[in-house]
Amino acid sequence: MRQPWRVAVVGGGIAGLAAAVRLRDRAPAGTEITVYEQSGALGGKLRTGELAGQPVEFGAESFLMRDPTGAESAAVALARRLGLAEKIVHPTVGQAALVIDGGLRPIPGGTLVGVPGDLERVATVARPAADADTDGGRPLVGPDADVSVGALVRSRFGNEVVERLVDPMLGGVYAGRADDLSLVTTMPALARAARVEHTLVGAVRSAQAAAPRAPGAPVFGTLAGGLSTLVEAAVTASGATVRRDAAVRELTPTGTGWRLTVGPTRDPELVDVDAVVLAVPARPAARLLAGPAPAVAAGVGALDYASVALVTMALPQPRLPELSGFLVPSTEGLLIKAATFFTTKWGHLRRPDGLALVRASVGRYGEEAHLQRPDADLAATVHRELSAVLGAPLPAPVDGHVQRWGGALPQYAPGHADRLAAARTALRAAHPTLVLAGAGYDGVGIPVCVRSGETAAEEIITALGGSAR
């Protein structure tokens, strides 16, 4: 008679927790699931705090409602599974702006992460290169090729479109630069279209047509009460044993599974399990893989990350534009790269006393020195720059918070998808009960991380199903 499976999930972010829920739903009854989280907090980059007596996100703010096929996103499906569907709310103000020449201009519609499908519509913020996007008689990108987003867009639309549109859009998501980021990983729909279409305008339109959105359908959602409710509900539904402040320092293969070395060097705890979901960022994953799979570790550990700081302020009755927020091109010379007007964007956060919650994001890849400033200095600079962009001094904040996310955002260089596929193929061949999950591998955003965790859980179930005792 076989014993219940024992599965370790290393990493308590949303990818790891989604894996734990899927394991509970699909694995045999009695499966023992343990989540090991090195820090004291679960949820990874999902963290709801409080400012001026009101819940506010100190990490990820929202999730996409639809996946690239137009179906319900994995985040929405998880919320539904956890009984939170009725708590999903949507932005009441969707229009955002760009800072151009020190002032705000509405972000033009019809783009795909800033890449235009209609050049005339972006003329208010950027001048596309004249006649550069010509039909050369062949697809823009080869069948197995990957290029940087910046290289492709510059060659077709010129520098201004990259610097004023694409770069700030990607910077808002990845804190990186278009010239460094993989087209295949960051814009997979456009990459697929570019392997068929002969012009970039044609590729954008093809990608947009492949994932149609019903008029008026919301693009983004969040949870009333904060995204930490998703974390708490996932922990409960998983039925997992949660070990906080529990660093897994080593993974060693055994004849029947894995031995985890947990805790301090002087007094380690040894835990034997049948399988492991490794849902931590690339560099700590590489350290754990160095023993059992050194070649995989080398490939995974090459991924670099950007650090950011999120500065949130509670402002008494400021005069804010009717915008969800704005993005800042790096050419503007500002420390902030994006700002969100929480209480304007999200109707459920508006207050009768007029107190506004405003958050600014600071930090671009390669500019980590700016983040060495003390919290008070960062907050003062953000307040000054916001006032300058809005054209009037903002009132002094009555409350504030600085959240630093060190090494938070993966910087996917061209070829990332191929390198990851090779690493996973090698890992499956050598160690099928050890699976990677999370943003460092499959992309950023809550839906992608949820799907990554769920896919990892399915792989574990398949691997154990063939050799269960």
Keywords:
about 475 residues, alpha+beta, seven-stranded mixed sheet, five-stranded parallel sheet, 15 helices, about 25% strand, globular
What does this structure look like?
The chain has 469 residues and is of the alpha+beta class. It has 15 helices and 22 strands. The strands form 6 sheets. A 7-stranded mixed sheet has the order 8-7-18-19-20-17-21. The longest helix has 20 residues. It is globular. The termini are close together.
Radius of gyration: 23 Å
The total count of strands amounts to 22
Oligomer: single chain
The pLDDT mean sits at 94
What distance lies between the first and last C-alpha atoms, to the nearest angstrom?
A: 7 Å
Give the fraction of residues assigned to helices: 25-40%
Number of helices: 15
Helix vs. strand class: alpha+beta
Topology:
Elements: E1 6-10, H1 14-26, E2 32-36, E3 48-51, E4 54-57, E5 63-64, H2 74-81, E6 88-89, E7 96-100, E8 103-106, E9 111-112, E10 115-116, H3 149-157, H4 159-174, H5 183-186, H6 188-194, H7 200-210, E11 220-223, H8 228-238, E12 241-243, E13 248-253, E14 258-262, E15 269-273, E16 275-278, H9 282-289, H10 294-300, E17 304-316, E18 325-327, E19 336-341, H11 342-345, E20 355-362, H12 375-390, E21 399-411, H13 416-430, E22 434-436, H14 439-442, H15 446-465
Parallel strand pairs: 1-2, 1-16, 2-12, 7-18, 16-22
Antiparallel strand pairs: 3-4, 5-11, 6-11, 7-8, 9-10, 13-14, 14-15, 17-20, 17-21, 18-19, 19-20
Helix pairs in contact: 1-8, 1-15, 2-15, 3-4, 6-7, 9-10, 10-13
